Amino acid sequence: MSNERIADAPIDSQFLDRWSPRAFDTSFTLTEVGLAPLFEAARWAPSAFNWQPWRFAFALRQEPGWADFVDLLMPFNAMWAKNASALIFVTSETQIKKPMDEELSPSHSHAFDTGAACALLALQARREGLYTHTLNGIHMDRVKTRLGVPATQRVEAAIAVGKLGDRASLPERLQARETPSSRKPVAEFAARARLQD
Ligand SMILES: Cc1cc2nc3c(=O)[nH]c(=O)nc-3n(C[C@H](O)[C@H](O)[C@H](O)COP(=O)(O)O)c2cc1C
């Protein structure tokens, strides 16, 4: 384990090992090859009718246009996410074609499915020695237009990816928050199902 988190039941350490830093190492560069295992892990996520509605569009810091991609984030995120090695913009297809149907229809679970894919991506990132930080403090409409997101897709989030950097690189206010957070106890969100009359 690389941090102080403690689980209340025995779980694989990978779940505690994933957390969302803001300090990224600017000396580290990622390539498309380096991102491939993250997308591959996402690929194997479950989804309703195996429709796989997640879509990812990535930008690498060392490539032209980085500042414009960073500009798609709200300033309070852009200020630190600009130091990440990659930004992944996550969208999801809002329409689904079920096996029994001829036509597309609105999907109940496009965001749910896409969240599952992002969780796997984040866990695989840690296996690669990388960290992810998901953001929805982004300019949704600007992402839509600047990335040419089709009308059938919903903009879900962006994910900053990179190696852990020096927390001293952050403004003081954020330095204090640069630590793995805790969680509610399981009893607050899981209970035996009770049927109502
Ligand atoms: C959908 C989503 C949106 C988020 N948006 C932001 C954001 O805009 N800015 C930010 O600093 N963190 C953002 N986060 C990170 C959460 O604050 C973080 O995951 C949560 O506090 C739990 O901490 P951990 O990921 O370090 O375990 C977001 C996370 C998710 C899943």
Summarize the structure.
A hairpin with an 8-residue loop joins strand 3 and strand 4 (105-106).
Please give a structural write-up:
- It is a single chain.
- This protein is an alpha+beta fold.
- It has a domain at about 35-165: NADH Oxidase (3-Layer(aba) Sandwich).
- It is built from seven helices and six strands.
- It has helices at about 15, 30-45, 65-70, 75-80, 110-125, 140-145, 170-175; strands at about 55-60, 85-95, 95, 105, 130-135, 155-160.
- The strands form two sheets. Strands 1-2-6-5 form a four-stranded antiparallel beta sheet, with helices on both faces. It has a two-stranded antiparallel sheet with strand order 3-4.
- A hairpin with an 8-residue loop joins strand 3 (about 95) and strand 4 (about 105).
- Helix 2 packs across helix 5 (about 110-125).
- It is globular.
- The model has no long low-confidence stretch (mean pLDDT about 95).
Order of helices and strands: HHEHHEEEHEHEH
Oligomeric composition of the shown chains:
single chain
Please, what is the average pLDDT? 97
Q: How many alpha or pi helices?
A: 7
Percent helix, as a range, is 25-40%
Poorly predicted runs are: none
Taking strands numbered 1, 2, ... along the chain, how are they ordered across the largest sheet?
1-2-6-5
The shape is globular
Give the name of the CATH architecture of one domain. 3-Layer(aba) Sandwich
Q: For this structure, what is the CATH class of one domain?
A: Alpha Beta
What is the radius of gyration? Answer: 18 Å
How far apart, in Å, are the first and last alpha carbons?
46 Å
